[in-house]
Write a structure and sequence with these properties.
Serine Threonine Protein Phosphatase 5, Tetratricopeptide repeat, globular
Length: 480
């Protein structure tokens, strides 16, 4: 075990990936994860297992799981150890172990983690104090709101956030004075006001929460697009539907879908549909089409939902709309209809997105029970691009009942995601221990990734060399 490998795992999700860890926990495989933490030296397994043990009151076992990681100086294990000790009732001792030194107090990440532990130990005022110097950044403000929720200190949080908003306003005004009133920049004062509004709302002061954002919007200051979205969502939560309707009329892109959802939730679905159709007629923004698709699906009108999204299916930035429509038809028991939709895409779109369209087609053939046809197509694709279609082929083989063949293909595949698919498939077939063994260790995965990166860099270097030397096969450089 070494810190370099653990750091690499944290950056690259190596070893046993978090989704698989959670799946194994959901399947009751805690002991398997405990063993993997020890034998594979996998932090993802150790952290999840320790958390589960701690929740069950097995503090000694939880400490034993993270102990080897803490002993080599892995900071995350130190935080986890402290959290376990806090749950055990040894808060002062735990906090003393992880208290930031003078230099670390300048690190907002360290302070945010320490503040979280202070809050869990019941020392909320100290947690607020640790985060206060970092409130000029967005994410420490978010952590402040999160770690103090339900701790009975909303007035203190509002006090420090209000001071931060006032500081930012003074900075903006001073900048305007220096620039003779032409200052075009902004601070994140608006974001501080969002935090203030959230705290007021949770403190049972919704009228004040709304007024904070209402006044800021009326100020005429420039805001990013998500400010009116937050304002719209607050109005919806407070049932201020008519005011929300006015906002939607002024800023349809930010608030129209929220307004429609509020109408639907209030039992006014027909009004919501009319509002969205009018918005599409006037602006035809994909966001409004998505909102109308959701509303129609809620009413069981799947075909209308699919038709509503149709104009977006070939937009460059709306790939998810096409996938969503296909999933709606599959979930409705009509995969053949989904195939018709896919086959109806223009030749230009298919030529521009060949791999995406082929992947969707193979998936739909499997869903339609046409595995033999899908297998044949996947084999042909693999002959042209060896290994690239192994995952799609393995899934089709699995659906066709050829499980041994699917496993064999994935075990020998050169596709860089094959081991993930193999692990998922083994879990689906109640073979969790084999699934865990099939995942490369952190060191193995790191070695493979670094080797691939070296090969990619070498290939790029050779290509650049051909350009520089003007070798045959290299396009002529501009001006040559």
């Amino acid at each position: 075990m070494n810190i370099d490998d653990l750091s690499w795992q944290a950056r690259h999700h190596g070893g046993v990936y978090p989704r698989m860890v959670q799946t194994l926990l959901d399947l009751g495989q805690l002991e398997l994860l405990i063993r993997a933490a020890s034998e594979r030296e996998d932090w993802n397994c150790a952290e999840a297992a320790a958390r589960e043990l701690c929740a069950a009151g097995e503090f000694d076992r939880a400490l034993a799981v993270v102990g080897p990681f803490a002993e080599i100086g892995w900071r995350d294990a130190g935080w986890a150890t402290a959290e376990i000790m806090i749950h055990r009732g040894r808060g002062d001792e735990a906090l003393a172990m992880v208290r930031p030194d003078e230099a670390e107090l300048d690190d907002s990440h360290v302070c945010a983690r320490y503040a979280e532990l202070l809050s869990k130990a019941g020392r909320v005022a100290e947690a607020v104090g640790v985060l206060t110097p970092h409130l000029g950044k967005h994410w420490p403000r978010s952590r402040l709101v999160e770690v103090t929720e339900g701790k009975g200190c909303d007035e203190l949080v509002l006090e420090v956030l209000t001071r931060e908003a006032e500081r930012m306003e003074r900075a903006e005004n001073a900048a305007c004075e220096r620039c003779g009133g032409s200052f075009a920049g902004r601070t994140d004062r608006w974001d501080v006001l969002l935090s203030i509004s959230r705290v007021l709302e949770r403190a049972g002061r919704p009228d004040e929460a709304v007024e904070v954002l209402r006044a800021e919007r009326a100020s005429g200051r420039r805001h990013p697009v998500n400010f009116p979205e937050y304002y719209a969502e607050l109005l919806a939560r407070q049932g201020l539907i008519e005011e929300l309707g006015v906002l939607a009329a002024e800023d349809h892109r930010s608030a129209l879908d929220v307004y429609a959802k509020a109408l639907e939730d209030a039992g006014r679905a027909s009004e919501a549909e009319a509002v969205l159709r009018a918005g599409i007629e006037a602006h035809d923004h994909p966001k409004d089409r998505a909102a109308l698709m959701r509303l129609l699906v809620h009413q069981g009108r799947v075909d209308e939902a699919v038709e509503t999204g149709r104009p977006t299916y070939e937009y460059a930035d709306c790939w998810n709309f096409l996938h969503w429509a296909l999933e709606l038809l599959v979930d409705d028991g009509r995969p053949d209809r989904a195939l018709e939709l896919l086959d109806g895409l223009t030749d230009a779109y298919v030529e521009e997105h060949p791999e995406q369209v082929r992947e969707l087609r193979l998936w739909l053939l499997g869903e339609a029970g046409r595995q033999a046809e899908g297998i044949s197509e996947a084999v042909a694709l693999n002959e042209r691009e060896p290994g690239e279609w192994d995952i799609a082929l393995a899934r089709l083989l699995e659906q066709d009942g050829q499980l041994a063949e699917a496993f064999a293909l994935l075990r020998t595949s050169t596709h860089y995601l094959a081991h993930y698919e193999l692990a998922d498939m083994l879990i689906r077939h109640d073979r969790p221990a084999e699934a865990l063994v099939s995942v490369p260790t952190i060191a193995e995965k790191r070695t493979a990734v670094e080797q691939r990166e070296r090969e990619t860099a070498a290939g790029a270097g050779r290509s650049l060399g051909r350009y520089e030397r003007g070798q045959p096969g290299a396009p002529a450089l501009e001006g040559s």
